[in-house]
Amino acid sequence: MMNAIPKWLWIALGLAVLIVAPIGQGNYFTLILCSWLMFTIAAMGLNLTLGYAGQISLAQASFMAVGAYITALLTLNGIHWIVAMPAAVVACFFIGLLVGFPALRVKGHFLAFVTLAFNTLVVLVLRNEDWLTGGSYGKFNMPRPDFWIFNTARKSDVLGIALSSNQKIYYLCLITFVVFAALMYGLIRSPWGRAFKGLRENPIRAESLGLDTRRITLLAFAIGSAGGGLAGSLMSPVVQFIEPNSFALVHSLRILLMVVVGGAGYFFGPMLGAAVVILLPEFLRFTQGYYLILYSVAVIILMVYSPSGLMGIGDRILSKLRPQRVVRGDMKEGAQL
Amino acid sequence: ADTMKIGMVVELSGGGAPAGTNFRDGALLAAKEINASGGVMGQQLEISEYDTGTDPQTSRALVQKAIDEGAYNIWGTVYSSSTIVNMMVAQQAGVPQITGSEAPNITAQGNPYIFRTSYGAQKGIPALTAYFKDTLGAKKVAVAWVNNEFGKGGHDVFVGEMKKAGIDVVADIPSEAGAADFAADVARIKDSGADAVFVYLHEEESARFLREASKQAVQAKLVGEVTLTGQKVIDLAGDAANGAVAHVGLTADAPLETFKTFKAAFEKEYNRAPDHNALKGYIGAYITKYGTEKAGAVDQEKFANTMHGLCLKAAEYPGILMDTCWDDSGEMSRPSFMIEVKDGKQVVGETVPAN
Amino acid sequence: MEQFLQVLLSGLATGSIYALAAIGFTLVWQAAQTVNFAQGEFVMLPAFFVLIAMNSGLPLPLALIVALAVSVFVLGFLFKKAIVEPMQKHGNGGGLSLIIATMALAIFLKESVKEFYGAEAQPYPPLISGGTWNIGGAIVSVTDIAHLAISLGVVVGLTLFLNRTRTGRAMQATAQNPAVAEILGVDTNRMVLYTFLINAALASLASFLITPVYLAKFSNGEYLGLIAFIAAIVGGFNQIRGALAGGLLIGVLDNITATYITAEYRAAIPLVLLIGIILFRPQGLLGTSEGRTV
Amino acid sequence: MSQTVLSVSHISKSFGGIHAVRDVSFEVQKGEVLGLIGPNGSGKSTLFNCVLGQLQPNAGAVTVKGQSVSGMRACDLNKLGVGRTFQQLSVFPEMTVLDNIILAGQEHHGTMLSRLFGAPDAGLTGEADRMIEFFRLGHLRDEMAGSLSYGQQKLLDAAMAFMAGPDLVLLDEPAGGVNLTMLANLKERLQTYNREHGTTFVVIEHNMEFVMSLCTRIIVLAEGAVIAEGTPEEIRSNSQVIDAYLGG
Amino acid sequence: MLELKDLYGGYGKITILNGVSFKIPKATITTVIGPNGAGKSTVFKAIFGLLNIHSGQILLEGRDVTGQKPRDMIGHGVTYVPQGRNVVPQLSVYHNLELGGITADDQDRVKQRIEVVMDQFPMLRQFRDRKAIELSGGQQKQLEVARALLLDPKLILIDEPSIGLSPNLVQEVFRTLQRLRDEGVTILMVEQNAKAALAMSDFGLVLELGQTRMHDRADTLLNDPKVGQLFLGGHMEETD
Ligand SMILES: Nc1ncnc2c1ncn2[C@@H]1O[C@H](COP(=O)(O)OP(=O)(O)OP(=O)(O)O)[C@@H](O)[C@H]1O
Ligand SMILES: Nc1ncnc2c1ncn2[C@@H]1O[C@H](COP(=O)(O)OP(=O)(O)OP(=O)(O)O)[C@@H](O)[C@H]1O
Ligand SMILES: [Mg+2]
Ligand SMILES: [Mg+2]
């Protein structure tokens, strides 16, 4: 059974698969994997804001945009990615703080609206201020970073294995992803994670227990947004082309879809969700024009069957295996009074 | 090998679906004809379709995929914003790409593997300058354009031309792709006192614009490039389209035998009328055929070299529909038409010679 | 002045159609606590039913009736029974996952129309036609006036229905506290169903009115759904007349922005203005605050 | 040596036309257990909410340990050492009982940063477990708080107020729905805290037996105003109170 | 009047009720007592059709009503006042009351009944047009109790009415229930305020761990030393 194998073994196994995944694969497949890793990072950020802290945000794609454009502008001007990336992440952190401020006054759908407006505004600024952003032509040919013995811009042998530029950039994505995931894991397990959940569950009570809900709300936004920024700063060298429409509202909705399909509030949810949202359409491509139809039906069925997403399916299967009636522990024990 | 793999990367969903679908259908029609007559250098065309969803990044990944899967040529994309991105991939891999896009900057990149099926706005719009200046005698013009890659390219060329011609642009009104409500745009144009309006929008937006202009009784002449007088626009706008004028590089209603034959074949195959994107797709497929045969080998680099500076006569190469030449940047030239809508019909006026 | 009047009147006319979509949106929000991201597609689809009916030879009035019936069945009944109801069984009203399901539904409807009817816009016959009037230099069509009148009528009618009739109040109770309503013997399931049927009917009405302007196209819903969402929020999300006010406000603001402020930022300026309203009045324009929470 | 922990002076609050609280003043000394009783709608909860910053009073001032708390946020009040419970159930429904309790205590352990990087929950878990055991919720430790019965949630709520280790605790109907045996335990715990830590309590409660046996002093509100104040014995025999509240 | 036969049930798959059986005669008051989490509220939910019943039977006047919906139960003349807060927050007090009679065919009669219950709880008349959410905790409870009386029920299930009510009002509610009993209404009530409740009841029922432990005449239970020790606050009196 699942429980027989310890968690860390599963994680090690998963990592091993991710390490060998692009070997011997074509460029397209490698790039799809990169795309999966990038969106997973963005979705994990949103999962913190939405899944744990319960603050709805429809602006994650715009943070990817900010991260991507900052990275693009810096790296096109000769600054190394390793410097540009933290700059992008920090910038997104602070912009996230700002976007979080309305969340102190409004909740739920109003907050959705404010973040939606922010996303629209970012996209329009990117398109209209062409002196900086290249307007609707976007920015292209961003350099891929060179890490001395590991130059992602060129193909070469690493440890005796011939790696293409795309494969190397995949490993950059993978390393970033692993580091980010580890940080997130620590955060969620720390008392901060509990505070985020408290904010989601009952903010008034949380406040009366000494939790500074304002600070927690802002942090939830800022950290989540920084995740978006990190994803964006990967996108710039991976895709080597960015333009405003790639960050439009529909893409924020897509990231939301990843979070919920995977299972909001589950640590591994975004990884599964991003895999489904990005990889499933690829598998369905052979159905030609019908793939989006099939895909949307699949999502509806999943949501109807398991509202807590793919992670919830696991729970449901486990509970199917259990006996039909469960007598709760305390109900079986003898009288306690 | 006795098959030739083609990667058709086009907009089959999303906002560009109408254009992409037409391009595809035109290309498939041509491919069917080509295969029936023995293929290209004895190889049958084997076409894989890739739907970009009108998303540039997806299109880039899909061009990569098509190349991974061994495509000899890439056909598409139609939307300039996608082409500008994915053409880099094809260029790196040395795969010729035959695009339906018209944005000026596509052939300005110095990419030796890109070829157009219809010339860029920077060649089409100047053909209108004389019309504004001499025929209409306009002093003040307004321009309504769609604020994306396609519209911005055209808009910039147009504004430059007007400046050269000494005509004032008194209202400069961008709108979003897919915009539905043109009340404010038209009200501004009316208020600006322009004698003529240059309408550079996609088909459906053109139709909505024409309707609103007719509702608000705009007196100024409405002039377009390619789209404004398309059959689709006329169908959608109804009476409101009457009087609109456009310079058109390709139209299924051109009074030429080759076009009539094409139109009949397309209608037979698909039960609907083709538009200029269908023509582009059709021509694009034949470019692959004729270019390869001219090169004398199924070789991507030779193909590209051959295409640069190539001129084809429609009499010998009927699939090309009109006498056409390509220059070193992949830009093309061929004759074009002025069309006016009268009583819901496209009336082809003078033919503008190739430039 | 002339221009302003024109822009104002045109804005009101389109705004009134937004309002119709927004009202249904608000109702569904109340009944199922869900943001229906497919609302735009609900407005897109009925026009295609009309076209299909007409293509099979029915005259327009009959086609409209058939389309209305089919829409109410598909977008009201089926939507409720096949998607919303099973999800609400899982508790907490379906929550986020229901929202996601409606997003997927939006894709499904859009892609199905495209696949089975075609990607290109189709001309669509106007429901109301007539000449235009010149009001102080601004040109207003009979259609515009009719649109305004219809939305006002719908709002008045619905408000009366919800406040004055027993069914209406039972629907309100269901919306506000389904658990209590259930205990009091309200057939909450049926009340929610009514809401969905009304929403489908309103969406069809909006569809019949707006498609002549927008042209029948599979992607029409993308913009309309967003507008309905925004109008509903601005209006307060729990008020029918709020949705009307929200719809009209968006229509007018949009046009005024495009005319006088900036066409480039047309899509954002109204949103930014509305954010001001929301931060200032978090309960929306006409909404009421939640009252005590402790 | 008596020290004023809470001082409420001339608080008024009205909603529209209703004067929920009219010019109420009182002081609470350290170590007191003050009862606040009165008929339904007499303004008790409103008064609490004014004291705790959930509501903005129309007039009057509140000081805690000599410090004015007007406009102060609930979390800062908590840091000052003020804990509370709510009249309506107020737990974190989708978190386990244990997490509810630890969350209640964690703000008083370590700094913001140490809570992020330090060993999580150091020392807290043990304390939380003791608290859970005390309120006989041990078998429910890992259940979601939302699935507890009414009385269990009420106890959890009280446990959370204690976890914050406050000097002043305001309890709004802690006994409602709690089984009498557990109630006795609750009372005992209150008294222990009161005795050992000098914790001050203000309790709103309709259960007279509980109030009378627990409180050292009682204030009676009616229609928003104080109508009586005194020891339990005095209140029990006050005819005005009997008329307005206790009934015959 | 009401009979439960070996009832098993719970939330989802979790079983809370482990064989609850009892019978209550018509026109009596039965008080259910038991520790927190014993399953008292769960029994009420089961009777009123709000629970997954795994096995067992519920008979109302001899008719099997197991698994019927709340709506059906109201049709049979059963009303239910749950624990906690259960008003429709944004509707006025009057409309909340009116909702209590939503299933009745004769709306004029409902209007009359509203006047009657408002006489009984004068507070309701005073706050007639205020939104329910603006009422104090106890005022909301009064509204709920009043609402349950609206339809002339045959059987009232009332879960801890005393929570949040001031003592005089508790007495008022108890007196009302007794009067109703005398008029032939059957009442099943949960109370932690057990001594007072048993004193006014005919029967008492002790529930523990999802099972019926004792079921006897109220005065017998009141005088039972064990019950007194465990449920009537005997412990408390000692420290008093
Ligand atoms: N948000 C509000 N809006 C309007 N009136 C309110 C509001 N909150 C309380 N009230 C009114 O103020 C008065 C006092 O209410 P409060 O909740 O303080 O009473 P309470 O003493 O706590 O009563 P209970 O014992 O029933 O809980 C009541 O008449 C109530 O209706
Ligand atoms: N929604 C639920 N989901 C899962 N378990 C529940 C749920 N509600 C109650 N329980 C569990 O069922 C058991 C019985 O609960 P119930 O509410 O019936 O107790 P009760 O006897 O009414 O207690 P109280 O006196 O505290 O109201 C408790 O252990 C509780 O944890
Ligand atoms: Mg109170
Ligand atoms: Mg209970």
UniProtKB/TrEMBL annotation, chain A:
Transmembrane domains' residue ranges: 7-23, 29-50, 57-75, 81-101, 108-126, 169-188, 216-235, 255-280, 292-313
Places the protein is found: Cell membrane
A molecular function GO annotation: branched-chain amino acid transmembrane transporter activity
One Pfam short name: BPD_transp_2
Keywords on record: Cell membrane, Membrane, Transmembrane, Transmembrane helix
Membrane topology, as annotated: Multi-pass membrane protein
Designated name of the protein: Branched-chain amino acid ABC transporter permease
One cellular-component annotation, GO: plasma membrane
From TrEMBL, chain C:
Molecular function via GO: transmembrane transporter activity
Lineage: superkingdom: Bacteria
Presence of keyword Ubl conjugation: no
UniProt GO cellular component terms: plasma membrane
Keyword set, alphabetical order: Amino-acid transport, Cell membrane, Membrane, Transmembrane, Transmembrane helix, Transport
Record Pfam families: BPD_transp_2
A biological process term (GO) from this entry: amino acid transport
Chief location category: membrane
Membrane topology value: Multi-pass membrane protein
Residues passing through the membrane, by range: 6-28, 60-79, 91-109, 135-162, 192-215, 227-253, 265-284
Subcellular location: Cell membrane
Family: Belongs to the binding-protein-dependent transport system permease family. LivHM subfamily.
Official protein name in the record: Branched-chain amino acid ABC transporter permease
Species, as recorded: Zhengella mangrovi
From TrEMBL, chain D:
CDD domains: ABC_Mj1267_LivG_branched
Pfam families assigned to the protein according to its UniProt record, in alphabetical order: ABC_tran, BCA_ABC_TP_C
Single GO cellular component term: plasma membrane
Domain ABC transporter: 6-248
Keyword annotations: ATP-binding, Nucleotide-binding, Transport
SUPFAM superfamilies the record matches: P-loop containing nucleoside triphosphate hydrolases (SSF52540)
PROSITE patterns given in the database record: ABC_TRANSPORTER_2 (PS50893)
Keyword Transport found: yes
GO MF annotation terms: ATP binding; ATP hydrolysis activity
Protein name per Swiss-Prot or TrEMBL: ABC transporter ATP-binding protein
Species this protein is from: Zhengella mangrovi
UniProtKB/TrEMBL annotation, chain E:
PROSITE patterns xref list: ABC_TRANSPORTER_2
Protein's UniProt keywords contain Metal-binding: no
ABC transporter domain ranges (all copies): 2-234
InterPro entries reported in the protein's UniProt record: AAA+_ATPase, ABC_transporter-like_ATP-bd, BCAA_Transport_ATP-bd_LivF, P-loop_NTPase
GO molecular function terms attached to this record: ATP binding; ATP hydrolysis activity; branched-chain amino acid transmembrane transporter activity
Listed Gene3D superfamilies: P-loop containing nucleotide triphosphate hydrolases
Coiled-coil stretches: none
GO terms (BP aspect): L-amino acid transport
SUPFAM superfamilies recorded: P-loop containing nucleoside triphosphate hydrolases
Keywords carried by this UniProt record: Amino-acid transport, ATP-binding, Nucleotide-binding, Transport
Entry annotated with the keyword Amino-acid biosynthesis: no
Similarity comment: family membership: Belongs to the ABC transporter superfamily.
PANTHER family (UniProt xref): ABC TRANSPORTER ATP-BINDING PROTEIN (PTHR43820:SF6), HIGH-AFFINITY BRANCHED-CHAIN AMINO ACID TRANSPORT ATP-BINDING PROTEIN LIVF (PTHR43820)
Protein name: ABC transporter ATP-binding protein
